[in-house]
Amino acid sequence: MKKIIAVDIDGTLLNSNRKISKKTHDALIKAQQLGHIVVIASGRDPFGVYPFADILEFKKFNGLLSNFNGGRITNYKTGEVIINHSLDLNLAKEILQFSEKNLDMHYIIYSDDEILTSSSDTYTLKEICDKAFTSYKVIDDLAYSLDFAPNKIMFSQNPNLIDKDAKKLKDKFFEKTAQVKSTPYFYEIMPKGIDKGRSLKEIADYYNMSMDDVIAFGDEENDLTMIEMAGCGIVMGNGSDFMKSKADFITKTNDDDGIAYYLEKFVFNEK
Length: 271
Hints:
Layout: E1 4-7, H1 9-13, H2 22-33, E2 37-41, H3 50-55, H4 58-61, E3 64-67, E4 72-75, E5 81-84, H5 89-102, E6 106-110, E7 115-117, H6 125-132, E8 136-138, H7 142-145, E9 153-156, H8 162-173, E10 177-183, E11 186-191, H9 196-206, E12 214-218, H10 224-229, E13 232-235, H11 241-245, E14 249-250, H12 258-267
Parallel strand pairs: 1-2, 1-12, 2-3, 7-8, 12-13, 13-14
Antiparallel strand pairs: 3-4, 4-5, 6-7, 6-9, 9-11, 10-11
Helix pairs in contact: 2-12
């Protein structure tokens, strides 16, 4: 039976060397050859996942990209944006202006061709750009001059300091937005109701498939909704104890080809 197989990137699809291992690559290629639909489900912008889509031959197999934690769903082969959710522009500017007056952490916004930030001191800015395979531009008055509705706003801060400011954002904007701490040093704000789980539901509806036929692989808290909503939510062996407590199955780590292990054991042998 055809499945939708959704994979997170960091800590899931990629090993500790930030590579797709041959075994994991071969398993996902085999899955597509067998008629399954593979989706890269990431908090990254589209540019940050294109190289992995190429490695997994998404143009050949019509693989899908779910970016910005479910904010945008794209057919990689055709470039068609199937579904797009963005923050209201005025709300986005309100969040940015609030952060500049009340928070100690900086933010980034993904545009179509580069990363925008109000400060070159943004925590892990180089790492963010490396992962997105793009450059950044500093706009001092970005909180006031932003002229497009972003899919998400990402805040970056030292892990020892981030929770205090994240609480302020949650207290102020929780009623109007979806928020998630995606790594120990990233806090992300999306449109209300948008998350990876909803994106998988939208993809399942697009293909007229049941959520029972969705398999999701993840490791961090921004993967929680898709782990909970998928017919089978798989957490990597390197995932947090909290995430493991929510899993339908705990597979091997990202360095031990946890995706391939599960697919070989339960999907490829399915009759």
